[in-house]
């Protein structure tokens, strides 16, 4: 059994940052990573451009409040420190509306820069941690951890778990470490997919595939209580609805589906018009363009494919003449555009989610140093903890902040 001072489980964003922090304190940490390279998920972030932080920071962007310890960690290694950390290593920032990317717009440059800060000899790739147990002395004191992998066994004085959540399994994180943490006495808040698209899957959704509109979307429970709201570009797909605003509300839908199996959305597909203005326009066109087919009722204002989906949902033949539409039907079209309600059949699941909502209970983490309150010598960072940020660089910022603090704390630095 090989002895190591610090063992890091998972070489993703948080694990690499933790290793860099340990090495910055002049100490050594062994990273065990099950994939064939470090930071595989980083390469996929921001569509390959890696939106690695954001200049706008608020506790609510991480679904925590200011009194929450999470915010202290985010302040101790904040976005400015993350930017200078990478800049000092040669990755200059490129900022757009607060969103920060590497100047190269290549995620790989950021991953490589982190990799250069880690001693290659202290990285084991294609090795999976299967079990962690506390090593107890004869006096019943925990003297470290026995870490069993598919290839070896290690005795580690301290362990930092940065194995991610369950989102995007193809990049390595599959949630198996939640069971390891349970076996060590931790409580896991049930993980659900977040930052993902939503399945509606009705006959009409096939008609709107490929359409993008500027809109607003709300999430509701079955009692019509509003859970969340967001606006921006909605992307309509053949089996549902996607786009950043949908991603932002998806964690609430996921939780609701997990709780009661029923969740709803309400969309406004034409935020530029009030309901009255839209109805006025529809009635005017019915009057002025009597021979036109219903499909073209909002030509020049709204994508025809979306209009066809709305007509199908309303049970109106898209080939009927405008003059044949009743005022009630015109009102119905208007209502469906301004207040489109649908039941969510499901989220697109962990495979299509960017992050996990849920994980190790925040109550069991000491937010002074990212150590476990349950197991002395154990540290946690990144997505494995029950913290998920909104879309826009916040999840990586959490990985940098928590990974850095876990690393320096485990190394005994300040
Ligand atoms: C497609 C996509 C795009 C994204 N875009 C952005 C973005 O632009 N900005 C942003 O802020 N966030 C983005 N995110 C989210 C962000 O990537 C994650 O929040 C972040 O990577 C989490 O870091 P982590 O280190 O906690 O976990 P991960 O990056 O998931 O790393 C965990 C690592 O642990 C390894 N591992 C797991 N179990 C074991 C085990 N038993 N033994 C050994 N190794 C193990 C995994 O292989 C993995 O490498 C995106 C996510 C996805 C999927």
Tell me what you see in this structure.
The chain is an alpha+beta fold and about 425 residues long. The chain has 2 domains: about 1-190 and about 360-410, 3-Layer(bba) Sandwich (FAD/NAD(P)-binding domain); about 195-350, no CATH class. Helix content is about 30%, strand content about 25%. It is built from 11 helices and 21 strands. The chain has helices at about 15-25, 40-45, 70-75, 80-90, 105-115, 175-185, 245-260, 275-290, 305-315, 325-340, 395-410, and strands at about 1-10, 30, 55, 95, 100, 125, 130-135, 140-150, 155-160, 190-195, 200, 210-220, 225-235, 240, 265-270, 340-345, 345, 355-360, 365, 370, 380. Strands 1, 2, 6, 7, 8, 9 and 21 form a 7-stranded mixed sheet that branches. It has a 7-stranded antiparallel sheet with strand order 16-15-12-13-14-11-17. Strands 3-5-4 form a 3-stranded antiparallel sheet. A hairpin with a 2-residue loop joins strand 13 and strand 14. Helix 3 packs across helix 11 and helix 8 crosses helix 10 (about 325-340). The protein is elongated. The two termini are about 30 Å apart. About 45% of the residues are buried. The mean pLDDT is about 95. Flavin-adenine dinucleotide (FAD) binds next to helix 1, helix 2, helix 6 and helix 11.
